[in-house]
Amino acid sequence: MADRFAAQGWWKKPPNNRKIMLFKFKDNLFNQEKRKRKMKKSVWLGLALAGLLILAGIPALAYDYSAIGVNITVFDGVGNGSTNWFGDQEDQEVEYSSQYNAVTGQDWDMEAFFWKNETSTLTMIGGYDLIDGKDGIKPGDVFLDVGSNGSWDYAISFSNTGTATWYALDASSTLIPTTHFPTSDPWKYASGATDSGSLNSLYTAFFSTDLAGVATGGNHNAIALDLSGLTLGTSFTVHFTMACGNDNLVGRVTHDTPNVPIPGAVWLLGSGFAGLVGLRRRRQN
């Protein structure tokens, strides 16, 4: 009777659920492999494009997520008075005083300090031009206070030549104050160092990619300083400002500063196949 019902279309064999599940499983595997192939293709297309830009003489910027370490920026205690808003951030925050007609904006913004324990590298980032300054207002030196005695132990004068000069300071050393904002002092080292030497540096100018939540708002400049030759102990405070003291940048490293990059932080180290090779090796690993 079942055959007769089947011939008339009244009865159908129940579906094989095991076969259906197996088919769906294979289909999912196929789609996953397809997506992986598409992703790999996109990566290599990006690498190929970057390589073509380099060969064509156009700067291609390579991302390195572990290059700059951790954000050690701390609030300097002075907010952006131009908008009657006082916050504890440094990015997109320029100190202001109507008394001195101070200006704000990305060109004056000092944004962040980063520290990497593995290489003893200090990186400073700002929209402000760290080499030539802005409107005749020149950049200062980087100052370090080792420990917590409240006095500056080192001053570092840097340039875009690949080297910087450090000066060991004591109470008799002469430091130049800022012209307008005493809360941002000191500005530069003048004389009286007890010792001095050179260290390696790397300057990157006018890169446009933002560091999420850390350095935003337009073009940025960065200077990386190799401090491995200095005696820094387990904690130190670092400071930088321009001649007028319009924006004061402060960072602090303590013994419990984690040695991992902050989420989403990137630094554009420059162009070249070296960065691309590094990216390729990490993906292969």
What does this structure look like?
The chain has two domains: 17-60; 63-269. It has 285 residues and is of the alpha+beta class. Helices cover 20% and strands 26% of the residues. The chain has helices spanning 2-7, 17-55, 273-284; strands at residues 63-64, 70-71, 73-74, 110-116, 121-126, 142-146, 154-158, 163-168, 174-176, 188-191, 195-207, 220-226, 236-240, 249-253, 267-268.
Report the uncertain regions.
Answer: 1-14, 38-65, 80-94, 96-100, 212-216, 259-285
From the N-terminal CA to the C-terminal CA, the straight-line distance is 64 Å
Q: Give the SSE string.
A: HHEEEEEEEEEEEEEEEH
- Beta strand count: 15
| Count of helical stretches | 3
Proportion of beta-strand residues = 25-35%
Q: How many structural domains in the coordinates?
A: 2
What about the largest sheet? 11 strands, antiparallel
Radius of gyration: 28 Å
Strand order of the largest sheet: 2-4-5-12-11-8-7-6-13-14-3
Structural class: alpha+beta
Q: How do the helices and strands line up, and which of them pair or pack?
A:
Elements lengths: L1 H6 L9 H39 L7 E2 L5 E2 L1 E2 L35 E7 L4 E6 L15 E5 L7 E5 L4 E6 L5 E3 L11 E4 L3 E13 L12 E7 L9 E5 L8 E5 L13 E2 L4 H12 L1
Antiparallel strand pairs: 1-15, 2-4, 3-14, 4-5, 5-12, 6-7, 6-13, 7-8, 8-11, 9-10, 11-12, 13-14
